[in-house]
Fold these 2 entries.
Entry 1:
Amino acid sequence: MTFMESVIADSMPLWQEAASCSFVEQMGRGTLEKEMFLDYIIQDSLYLRDYLKAFAMGMVKSRSLREMQVFYSVLGYVNDSENATRLCYLAERGLTDDAIENYSKRPACTAYTQFLLDTAKQEEIPEILMAVMPCMLGYAYVFETLLANYPAVLKSQYGPLVCDYTSEGYKESCQFWTQYCDEVCEPLDTKRKQKLTAIFRAASRHELDFWEMAGTKNEIKQGDK
């Protein structure tokens, strides 16, 4: 078993819980309230800003040009694909990306982004990778499970979002990053790997909290950042 296979197995119960949470199930059944979905898109958009900052810190701490290029590649993908889909959903509700800056993060989003930023500032490349990977890989698991359980979701308003995380391109990206994490982390000693596993699990816990937050009602309003 590779290092990444072991850390993913360790966090899999959290991913499985996320994939079966109320928000995801309601998406699949087509019963999700529009305001709840909009709140999710807003919170995810706010989260994405700090997620990218963690990758940017990875670039700053990179030990080689190749490593810098690997971290930089995510910035382009998010701008071209992930954020593009969110912008379309926001536009349908008369919102722009700039307008999102005026909305407040909910507690689960704040806790998650603070975890990412603290890890990125205080730790080194292997730890940064373990903090950001559960989002990338966990989203693939959640949406692939959603699609498997509810194939018709592709024909719903959530189709573009599901496609983003179940496409062949996204799968290839996940495979690349998984292999890269193994390349970086496999040579490390047992104590360091235990620390990395704990960080990966903590990030996966934050992922689950974020999904559970999305399944609770929230009054969408502007506020202080």
Note: The chain has a mean pLDDT of 92.
Entry 2:
Amino acid sequence: MARVKPFKGVRPPKELIEDVASRPYDVLNSDEARQEAGSNEKSLYHIIKPEIDFPVGTDEHDPAVYDKAVENFKKFQEKGWLIQDDKEKYYVYAQTMNGRTQYGLVVCANVEDYLSGVIKKHELTRRDKEEDRMKHVRINDANIEPVFFAYPENKELSAIVSAVVKNKPEYDFVAPDGFGHHFWTIDNDVTIARITELFAQIPYLYIADGHHRTAAAALVGAEKAKQNPNHKGDEEYNYFLAVCFPDSHLKIIDYNRVVKDLNGLTDEEFLKKLEKNFIVEKKGADIYAPAHLHNFSLYLSGNWYSLTAKEGTYDDNDPIGVLDVTISSNLILDEILGIKDLRSDKRIDFVGGIRGLGELKRRVDNGEMRVALALYPVSMKQLIDIADSGNIMPPKTTWFEPKLRSGLVIHKLT
């Protein structure tokens, strides 16, 4: 059962929220962060991407860069750009995209729950990425950015959230990308106690987005427990910052592929090979989006094609075999194009569906890529089935949007 607790959030005064809040550290590179921060000294990028305070080209893993994060975090607190709440609270964080709003509870999740599998994952993590975030958590003694969890919807929790959001939000703004962000505090002691009790009835939490951040936060917590001879289990470092959304609120969008060459094949030879496992239909120059599970769209030499996987090429009873990313990886990328490892092969790149299928067309038309493949999005049910069965999704399967805005609230480990 899931153990969560309220916490004394560290967050910006209302009037500074738009100056401080930023995109997550891993959705943009150093140059983009430098550009977005511009002359804004209050931008959270100075803490989560502190290499922007150094000359262009500075290695983001340089020890001086991590030290700068600590210095900036301290400065933000001294200047009153970040202030710690005086009591432990829960928070509600809602996001609006394309007229649709999803409501999450901001909690501290339990380190031991991650290590024991109560918090379930569906992706492999890379040790180098974990190490980077572990250093960041360790050196700041804080979870600066939250992780993104899903939980099976609970009617009473939903009712609590509905009641809270009838009040005026603490923060309410539209970010430069057009997505709305809304934030409320919950400081009623009875409500706080009930939220903790209700989460204790939820068997599992699921990592939706932020596998590396979750692993890093949990590993640092476990490290601190080991180093403390008087460890009791209720210390603040036993918990880390998470925003938990009911599974029914979340929508995964497509995550598409572009490939640099046809592995020595002509267009005709490539399309012919596809016919072994797919029904191939030429759709012409107008953008074609996959219509249903096991239907793909392919863009090649100015034309869109519909590919429908033939019976027997997938297994709808297998949580991995049912995935379109499995079908396309095995039968197109590996079998025809010779791409064996999606993580390391330089011939392939991945495009989040938020950019639209026009981005696939653009990257093929400009000659950078030779062929593009669009996939029907994975469902939350598929994600949960995979996590429940102890399986791991293939790389680059899920894309969640909108991303959590960083800087709305921070959790200190002491």
Note: The mean pLDDT is 95.
